[in-house]
Amino acid sequence: MTKQYDAVIIGAGHNGLVCAFYLAQAGLKVRIVERRDVVGGAAVTEEFHPGFRNSVASYTVSLLQPKVIRDMRLVEHGYRVIERPISNFLPQEDGGYLKLGGGLKRTQAEFARFSQADAEALPAYYDALEGVAQVLRDLALKSPPNVGEGLRTLIAGASQGWGISRLDLAAKRDILDLFTKSATSFLGQWFENDAVKAAFGFDAVVGNYASPDTPGSAYVLLHHVFGEVNGKKGAWGHCVGGMGTITQIMADVCRQSGVEISLEAPVAQVLVDGDTVAGVKLESGEEIAATRVIANVGPMLLYGKMLDAAHQPEDFRRRMHGYKAAGGTFRMNVALSELPRFTALPEPGEHHQSGIIIAPTLGYMDRAFLDAKAHGWSKKPIVEMLIPSTVDDSLAPPGQHVASLFCQQFAPTLPDDRDWDEEEDAAADAIIDTVEAHAPGFRASILGRQVLSPKGLYRKFGLVGGDIMHGQMSLDQLWSARPVLGHGSYRGPVKGLYMCGAGTHPGGGVTGAPGHNCAREVIFDRGNWRRFTAI
Question: Where do the structural domains in the chain lie, given as residue ranges?
Fold first, then answer.
């Protein structure tokens, strides 16, 4: 087989595009092969009802690395993010509400309506969280030390551990707490009021099929706060045009850099010659020769379907068989004739431009998880609603709106051999009922809907178990152990095979970090020291 490409990348999601950009800038001949007819992976904007467009899966911006934004010159190509005026709005079961965000003093005043002690504790909590979040920011664009690489492992471990070693004892305790404790336990150290704890605890179950009582869930809370928008740490926002705007811009930048992108080109197999990758074989039968194959699909897809088991060491294969990918996520987009009128705040306002969280207590979240384990989904699920058309009139006709419903605690596989294809409409109705209880008339305002169960997310985007993170963000699947210890530096078990997706460090979310880091490792292995140090 004649060598044609320096690298072929499986999947045109944002990390694959980022990786391709850096490799092309280093002079490599790169081709991306994408299963779908559009680039973007789970970060795409589609018309789901006549005249209504929305971000289909990924739906909000914070974690995209500023370095990636700068290097790809995304702003110059039209990337624009509108920051939320407040972070979240949480309707309460008693008809009240809590608002989170808009500045420290404003949030303290809001918390004081529920607990003066919690309002007073907030500055110290933010300081503690920010201290640990900064550690994550510092590590996000660094490759984890990889067990088995000798001196390089020691140097990387010492370098990355130095930042933690300089922290004071309280900060080190915070790190230990956040990586090992449940969100319930961690938040209980700081706050007394149930609504206040829920305002922060929601992040602990996003894309995490677990209870906030589950040990390690505090880390998922932390993972969602280390981003920024327009230079404001911890902020979230809406990309004008939806998430697909980001990946369309990235694809244009890649093409301008010489990257070839092939759509409707699903990969059937990673080709191996001896102990080295040789390219990929598409489902069409076409073989594409490449010195390196870089997978921007989840580890379970790569090692379960694309790379023959004969090329995977026995211990590696056994551990990957135990890899956990079960996000428990259910995704809906709805076209609305009007804005929802919440009982707590019926008139239009800043709460419609925030994350609207229906999960009033940690106990509510725990019951939703237990219900899902027993029955497949919760009749009172955890729902986050965003209405991006309140700030972006390109998404819906005048006077009408689109809403994203991002819902948690839906079993990846239903019990009793039930199938999601037969039950997703009933689950969607339960979600709508949950919103209706807080915003009467919501159901009647729905003009159309797009429904994606965990199975639907797998079928459309290749997200095994509906897992938006490409694998659970648990302590045994983080940093050097993501996806498995010994392969935490973006390299697979076959020479020339690499991984650049969310199943590698630092994990899920639209960050671009795995793609950036993987490209740097490819360039390191190629011996291009000048380009390696420049990334």
Answer: 5-43+61-81+241-324+473-534, 101-235, 326-466
